[in-house]
Amino acid sequence: MTEGGTGTGRSAPATLHDVAREAGVSLAxxxxxxxxxxxxxxxxxxxxxxxxxxxxxxxxxxxxxAVARGTTTTVALLVADIADPYFSSIAAGVVAEADHxxxxxxxxxxxxxxxxxxxxxxxxxxxxxxxxxxAGSRPTTDPTGGALGEELRAYERSGGLVVxxxxxxxxxxxxxxxxxxxxxxLARGLVGIGYRRFAIITGxxxxxxxxxxxxxxxxxxxxxxxxLEDDDVIRDAFTRDGGYDGMRRLLERGLGDVECVFAAxxxxxxxxxxxxxxxxxxxxxxxxxxxxxxxxTVRDVTPALTTVRVPLEEIGxxxxxxxxxxxxxxxxxxxxxxxxxxxxxxxxK
Length: 349
What we know:
Blueprint: H1 16-23, H2 27-34, H3 43-56, H4 62-69, E1 74-79, H5 85-100, E2 104-109, H6 114-127, E3 131-134, H7 147-157, E4 161-166, E5 174-176, H8 179-192, E6 197-202, H9 208-224, E7 227-235, H10 240-253, E8 260-263, H11 266-278, E9 288-290, E10 307-309, H12 312-323, H13 327-331, E11 338-340
Parallel strand pairs: 1-2, 1-3, 3-4, 4-5, 6-7, 6-8, 8-9
Antiparallel strand pairs: 10-11
Helix pairs in contact: 1-2, 1-3, 2-3, 5-12, 6-7, 8-9, 10-11
Protein backbone atom coordinates (compact mmCIF):
# COMPACT_ATOMS: atom_id res chain seq x y z
CA MET A 1 0.00 0.00 0.00
CA THR A 2 1.14 3.54 -0.68
CA GLU A 3 1.82 5.90 2.21
CA GLY A 4 -1.30 7.97 1.55
CA GLY A 5 -3.70 5.01 1.58
CA THR A 6 -6.39 4.08 4.06
CA GLY A 7 -4.03 2.71 6.67
CA THR A 8 -4.61 -1.06 6.24
CA GLY A 9 -1.31 -2.87 6.52
CA ARG A 10 0.63 0.33 7.27
CA SER A 11 4.07 -0.47 8.65
CA ALA A 12 4.62 2.95 10.28
CA PRO A 13 2.29 5.34 12.12
CA ALA A 14 0.54 7.92 9.98
CA THR A 15 2.03 11.41 9.98
CA LEU A 16 0.37 14.80 9.74
CA HIS A 17 1.61 14.95 6.12
CA ASP A 18 -0.29 11.72 5.43
CA VAL A 19 -3.49 13.19 6.90
CA ALA A 20 -3.16 16.40 4.87
CA ARG A 21 -2.60 14.44 1.66
CA GLU A 22 -5.50 12.08 2.38
CA ALA A 23 -7.84 15.02 3.09
CA GLY A 24 -6.62 17.06 0.11
CA VAL A 25 -5.70 20.10 2.22
CA SER A 26 -2.55 21.97 3.10
CA LEU A 27 -0.35 20.88 5.97
CA ALA A 28 -1.23 24.08 7.84
CA UNK A 29 -4.97 23.43 7.50
CA UNK A 30 -4.56 19.86 8.74
CA UNK A 31 -2.53 21.07 11.70
CA UNK A 32 -5.05 23.75 12.69
CA UNK A 33 -7.91 21.29 12.40
CA UNK A 34 -6.29 18.80 14.74
CA UNK A 35 -4.34 20.82 17.28
CA UNK A 36 -7.02 23.08 18.74
CA UNK A 37 -5.81 26.24 17.05
CA UNK A 38 -7.89 29.34 17.67
CA UNK A 39 -7.56 30.29 13.99
CA UNK A 40 -10.73 29.48 12.11
CA UNK A 41 -10.76 26.56 9.71
CA UNK A 42 -13.38 26.06 7.02
CA UNK A 43 -15.84 23.55 8.47
CA UNK A 44 -15.81 21.35 5.36
CA UNK A 45 -12.01 21.18 5.43
CA UNK A 46 -11.99 20.46 9.14
CA UNK A 47 -14.44 17.60 8.66
CA UNK A 48 -12.33 16.14 5.84
CA UNK A 49 -9.22 16.31 8.02
CA UNK A 50 -10.93 14.61 10.97
CA UNK A 51 -12.29 11.87 8.73
CA UNK A 52 -8.87 11.34 7.14
CA UNK A 53 -7.22 11.20 10.57
CA UNK A 54 -9.74 8.57 11.66
CA UNK A 55 -9.17 6.47 8.53
CA UNK A 56 -5.41 6.61 8.99
CA UNK A 57 -5.61 6.05 12.76
CA UNK A 58 -3.55 9.19 13.21
CA UNK A 59 -2.64 10.32 16.73
CA UNK A 60 -1.09 13.78 17.15
CA UNK A 61 2.21 14.01 18.99
CA UNK A 62 1.07 16.22 21.85
CA UNK A 63 4.52 16.49 23.39
CA UNK A 64 6.00 17.70 20.12
CA UNK A 65 3.15 20.20 19.74
CA ALA A 66 3.80 21.55 23.21
CA VAL A 67 7.48 22.07 22.45
CA ALA A 68 6.73 23.70 19.10
CA ARG A 69 4.07 26.05 20.44
CA GLY A 70 5.42 26.49 23.96
CA THR A 71 2.05 25.28 25.28
CA THR A 72 -0.46 22.42 25.12
CA THR A 73 -4.19 22.42 24.44
CA THR A 74 -4.98 21.90 28.12
CA VAL A 75 -6.56 24.12 30.75
CA ALA A 76 -5.30 23.56 34.29
CA LEU A 77 -7.96 24.28 36.92
CA LEU A 78 -6.97 24.51 40.58
CA VAL A 79 -9.78 24.31 43.13
CA ALA A 80 -9.75 24.12 46.90
CA ASP A 81 -11.93 21.00 47.22
CA ILE A 82 -13.11 18.81 44.36
CA ALA A 83 -15.98 17.42 46.46
CA ASP A 84 -17.40 20.88 47.21
CA PRO A 85 -20.33 21.62 44.85
CA TYR A 86 -19.20 25.28 44.69
CA PHE A 87 -16.01 24.23 42.91
CA SER A 88 -17.55 21.38 40.92
CA SER A 89 -20.12 23.82 39.52
CA ILE A 90 -17.37 26.25 38.49
CA ALA A 91 -15.48 23.32 36.97
CA ALA A 92 -18.56 22.35 34.95
CA GLY A 93 -18.58 25.83 33.42
CA VAL A 94 -14.86 25.69 32.61
CA VAL A 95 -15.26 22.26 31.01
CA ALA A 96 -18.26 23.37 28.93
CA GLU A 97 -16.41 26.43 27.61
CA ALA A 98 -13.23 24.42 27.03
CA ASP A 99 -15.18 21.90 24.98
CA HIS A 100 -16.45 24.76 22.82
CA UNK A 101 -12.83 25.88 22.31
CA UNK A 102 -11.60 22.31 21.76
CA UNK A 103 -9.43 22.40 24.87
CA UNK A 104 -9.04 19.75 27.58
CA UNK A 105 -9.38 20.51 31.30
CA UNK A 106 -7.25 18.96 34.01
CA UNK A 107 -8.10 19.63 37.64
CA UNK A 108 -6.20 19.52 40.92
CA UNK A 109 -7.21 20.30 44.51
CA UNK A 110 -5.18 22.63 46.71
CA UNK A 111 -7.01 21.54 49.90
CA UNK A 112 -6.88 25.23 50.89
CA UNK A 113 -3.16 24.82 51.56
CA UNK A 114 -1.08 27.72 50.14
CA UNK A 115 2.10 25.63 50.04
CA UNK A 116 0.36 22.86 48.14
CA UNK A 117 -1.11 25.42 45.75
CA UNK A 118 2.37 26.80 45.07
CA UNK A 119 3.76 23.30 44.47
CA UNK A 120 0.94 22.51 42.06
CA UNK A 121 1.53 25.71 40.08
CA UNK A 122 5.24 24.90 39.82
CA UNK A 123 4.46 21.38 38.62
CA UNK A 124 1.87 22.58 36.13
CA UNK A 125 4.27 25.14 34.65
CA UNK A 126 6.44 22.24 33.52
CA UNK A 127 3.46 20.65 31.77
CA UNK A 128 2.87 23.84 29.76
CA UNK A 129 -0.92 24.20 29.93
CA UNK A 130 -2.33 26.90 27.73
CA UNK A 131 -4.42 28.36 30.57
CA UNK A 132 -4.20 28.14 34.37
CA UNK A 133 -7.33 29.02 36.38
CA UNK A 134 -7.10 29.35 40.17
CA ALA A 135 -10.52 29.09 41.80
CA GLY A 136 -9.58 28.60 45.46
CA SER A 137 -10.07 31.39 47.98
CA ARG A 138 -6.92 33.42 48.63
CA PRO A 139 -5.58 33.64 52.21
CA THR A 140 -5.86 36.97 54.01
CA THR A 141 -2.06 36.92 54.41
CA ASP A 142 0.54 35.53 52.00
CA PRO A 143 2.31 32.63 53.74
CA THR A 144 4.30 31.82 50.58
CA GLY A 145 6.05 35.20 50.62
CA GLY A 146 4.82 36.29 47.21
CA ALA A 147 6.22 33.18 45.52
CA LEU A 148 2.85 32.22 44.01
CA GLY A 149 2.52 35.55 42.21
CA GLU A 150 6.08 35.26 40.95
CA GLU A 151 5.44 31.75 39.61
CA LEU A 152 2.25 32.82 37.84
CA ARG A 153 3.85 35.89 36.27
CA ALA A 154 6.79 33.78 35.08
CA TYR A 155 4.31 31.36 33.55
CA GLU A 156 2.61 34.24 31.72
CA ARG A 157 5.97 35.55 30.46
CA SER A 158 6.55 32.15 28.88
CA GLY A 159 3.23 32.39 27.01
CA GLY A 160 0.74 30.97 29.49
CA LEU A 161 -2.53 32.62 30.52
CA VAL A 162 -3.67 32.99 34.14
CA VAL A 163 -7.11 33.81 35.52
CA UNK A 164 -8.08 34.07 39.18
CA UNK A 165 -11.62 33.62 40.48
CA UNK A 166 -13.09 35.69 43.33
CA UNK A 167 -10.48 38.31 44.30
CA UNK A 168 -7.46 39.94 42.67
CA UNK A 169 -4.69 40.11 45.25
CA UNK A 170 -2.05 39.10 42.67
CA UNK A 171 -2.72 41.78 40.01
CA UNK A 172 -3.68 39.23 37.33
CA UNK A 173 -6.78 38.68 35.20
CA UNK A 174 -9.65 38.00 37.59
CA UNK A 175 -13.32 37.09 37.53
CA UNK A 176 -14.43 39.13 40.52
CA UNK A 177 -17.12 37.81 42.87
CA UNK A 178 -18.46 40.53 45.16
CA UNK A 179 -18.80 38.51 48.34
CA UNK A 180 -18.98 41.66 50.46
CA UNK A 181 -21.98 43.11 48.61
CA UNK A 182 -23.76 39.76 48.43
CA UNK A 183 -23.50 39.15 52.16
CA UNK A 184 -24.52 42.71 52.95
CA UNK A 185 -27.62 42.35 50.77
CA LEU A 186 -28.49 39.09 52.51
CA ALA A 187 -28.30 40.71 55.94
CA ARG A 188 -30.50 43.57 54.77
CA GLY A 189 -32.99 41.11 53.30
CA LEU A 190 -33.21 39.05 56.49
CA VAL A 191 -33.73 42.12 58.66
CA GLY A 192 -36.36 43.23 56.15
CA ILE A 193 -38.44 40.10 56.81
CA GLY A 194 -38.30 40.50 60.56
CA TYR A 195 -35.06 38.97 61.90
CA ARG A 196 -33.06 41.00 64.39
CA ARG A 197 -30.68 38.71 66.30
CA PHE A 198 -28.06 36.70 64.40
CA ALA A 199 -25.16 34.28 64.72
CA ILE A 200 -22.62 33.29 62.06
CA ILE A 201 -20.90 29.99 61.30
CA THR A 202 -17.86 30.56 59.11
CA GLY A 203 -14.43 29.26 58.14
CA UNK A 204 -11.27 29.65 60.17
CA UNK A 205 -9.24 32.82 60.39
CA UNK A 206 -7.20 33.66 57.30
CA UNK A 207 -9.63 32.61 54.56
CA UNK A 208 -10.42 35.64 52.40
CA UNK A 209 -13.80 34.52 51.03
CA UNK A 210 -15.08 33.75 54.53
CA UNK A 211 -13.71 37.03 55.89
CA UNK A 212 -15.36 39.06 53.12
CA UNK A 213 -18.72 37.40 53.69
CA UNK A 214 -18.62 37.97 57.44
CA UNK A 215 -17.58 41.60 56.91
CA UNK A 216 -20.36 42.18 54.39
CA UNK A 217 -22.96 40.57 56.64
CA UNK A 218 -21.86 42.71 59.59
CA UNK A 219 -22.13 45.83 57.42
CA UNK A 220 -25.67 44.92 56.38
CA UNK A 221 -26.72 44.41 59.98
CA UNK A 222 -25.12 47.66 61.08
CA UNK A 223 -27.05 49.55 58.38
CA UNK A 224 -30.44 48.02 59.27
CA UNK A 225 -30.45 47.51 63.02
CA UNK A 226 -29.73 43.80 63.23
CA UNK A 227 -27.41 42.62 66.01
CA LEU A 228 -24.51 40.17 66.09
CA GLU A 229 -22.35 39.57 69.15
CA ASP A 230 -18.68 38.70 68.68
CA ASP A 231 -19.18 35.51 70.70
CA ASP A 232 -21.81 34.42 68.18
CA VAL A 233 -19.30 34.14 65.32
CA ILE A 234 -18.39 30.43 65.33
CA ARG A 235 -15.37 29.29 63.29
CA ASP A 236 -14.75 25.81 61.97
CA ALA A 237 -13.73 24.11 58.73
CA PHE A 238 -15.24 25.73 55.61
CA THR A 239 -17.01 22.41 54.82
CA ARG A 240 -20.24 20.53 55.45
CA ASP A 241 -18.75 18.87 58.54
CA GLY A 242 -17.47 22.24 59.73
CA GLY A 243 -21.00 23.60 59.46
CA TYR A 244 -22.34 20.64 61.43
CA ASP A 245 -19.75 20.99 64.19
CA GLY A 246 -20.11 24.77 64.37
CA MET A 247 -23.89 24.55 64.67
CA ARG A 248 -23.60 21.79 67.29
CA ARG A 249 -21.28 23.99 69.36
CA LEU A 250 -23.69 26.88 69.07
CA LEU A 251 -26.62 24.71 70.17
CA GLU A 252 -24.73 23.15 73.08
CA ARG A 253 -23.77 26.59 74.31
CA GLY A 254 -27.36 27.77 73.90
CA LEU A 255 -28.93 29.91 71.20
CA GLY A 256 -30.24 32.49 73.65
CA ASP A 257 -32.22 34.98 71.61
CA VAL A 258 -30.51 34.15 68.29
CA GLU A 259 -33.21 33.90 65.63
CA CYS A 260 -31.19 33.27 62.48
CA VAL A 261 -27.79 31.70 61.72
CA PHE A 262 -25.84 32.76 58.64
CA ALA A 263 -23.51 30.02 57.39
CA ALA A 264 -20.82 31.57 55.19
CA UNK A 265 -21.27 28.98 52.45
CA UNK A 266 -24.01 26.56 51.48
CA UNK A 267 -22.18 23.36 52.38
CA UNK A 268 -21.73 24.69 55.91
CA UNK A 269 -25.44 25.56 55.94
CA UNK A 270 -26.36 22.00 54.91
CA UNK A 271 -24.28 20.66 57.80
CA UNK A 272 -25.96 23.14 60.14
CA UNK A 273 -29.41 21.93 59.06
CA UNK A 274 -28.44 18.37 59.98
CA UNK A 275 -27.08 19.46 63.37
CA UNK A 276 -30.33 21.26 64.16
CA UNK A 277 -32.37 18.15 63.35
CA UNK A 278 -30.03 15.90 65.32
CA UNK A 279 -30.62 18.17 68.33
CA UNK A 280 -34.36 17.51 68.07
CA UNK A 281 -35.16 20.95 66.65
CA UNK A 282 -36.82 22.02 63.41
CA UNK A 283 -34.78 24.24 61.06
CA UNK A 284 -36.76 27.23 59.88
CA UNK A 285 -39.07 26.98 62.89
CA UNK A 286 -36.86 26.82 65.98
CA UNK A 287 -34.00 28.64 64.30
CA UNK A 288 -33.65 30.04 60.77
CA UNK A 289 -30.67 29.24 58.53
CA UNK A 290 -29.19 31.08 55.53
CA UNK A 291 -26.21 30.24 53.32
CA UNK A 292 -24.24 31.63 50.42
CA UNK A 293 -23.57 30.39 46.82
CA UNK A 294 -26.84 28.67 45.81
CA UNK A 295 -25.25 25.35 44.97
CA UNK A 296 -27.79 23.08 43.20
CA THR A 297 -28.48 20.81 46.20
CA VAL A 298 -29.84 23.57 48.46
CA ARG A 299 -33.00 23.86 46.38
CA ASP A 300 -33.82 20.27 47.29
CA VAL A 301 -33.01 20.16 51.01
CA THR A 302 -35.81 20.57 53.54
CA PRO A 303 -36.49 23.33 54.22
CA ALA A 304 -35.19 24.87 50.99
CA LEU A 305 -32.27 27.12 51.86
CA THR A 306 -32.22 30.90 51.79
CA THR A 307 -28.94 31.93 50.21
CA VAL A 308 -27.05 34.31 47.93
CA ARG A 309 -27.11 33.09 44.35
CA VAL A 310 -23.76 33.12 42.58
CA PRO A 311 -23.84 32.01 38.90
CA LEU A 312 -21.16 29.40 39.42
CA GLU A 313 -21.13 27.72 36.01
CA GLU A 314 -21.11 31.11 34.28
CA ILE A 315 -18.11 32.08 36.42
CA GLY A 316 -16.25 29.06 35.05
CA UNK A 317 -17.21 29.93 31.49
CA UNK A 318 -16.25 33.56 31.93
CA UNK A 319 -12.88 32.65 33.44
CA UNK A 320 -11.87 30.71 30.34
CA UNK A 321 -13.24 33.34 27.97
CA UNK A 322 -11.28 35.97 29.88
CA UNK A 323 -8.09 33.94 29.56
CA UNK A 324 -8.57 33.58 25.82
CA UNK A 325 -9.00 37.32 25.30
CA UNK A 326 -12.76 37.57 24.85
CA UNK A 327 -13.44 41.32 24.81
CA UNK A 328 -16.89 40.97 26.36
CA UNK A 329 -15.47 38.97 29.29
CA UNK A 330 -12.78 41.62 29.77
CA UNK A 331 -15.38 44.40 29.84
CA UNK A 332 -17.66 42.73 32.40
CA UNK A 333 -17.45 43.90 35.99
CA UNK A 334 -17.87 41.86 39.16
CA UNK A 335 -20.19 38.87 38.95
CA UNK A 336 -23.72 39.82 39.99
CA UNK A 337 -25.11 38.05 43.06
CA UNK A 338 -28.75 37.78 44.12
CA UNK A 339 -30.44 37.13 47.46
CA UNK A 340 -32.91 34.23 47.30
CA UNK A 341 -35.30 33.93 50.25
CA UNK A 342 -36.63 30.40 50.77
CA UNK A 343 -38.38 28.38 53.48
CA UNK A 344 -35.38 28.13 55.83
CA UNK A 345 -35.97 31.77 56.81
CA UNK A 346 -39.74 32.23 56.99
CA UNK A 347 -40.85 35.86 57.54
CA UNK A 348 -41.25 36.81 61.18
CA LYS A 349 -44.22 38.86 62.34
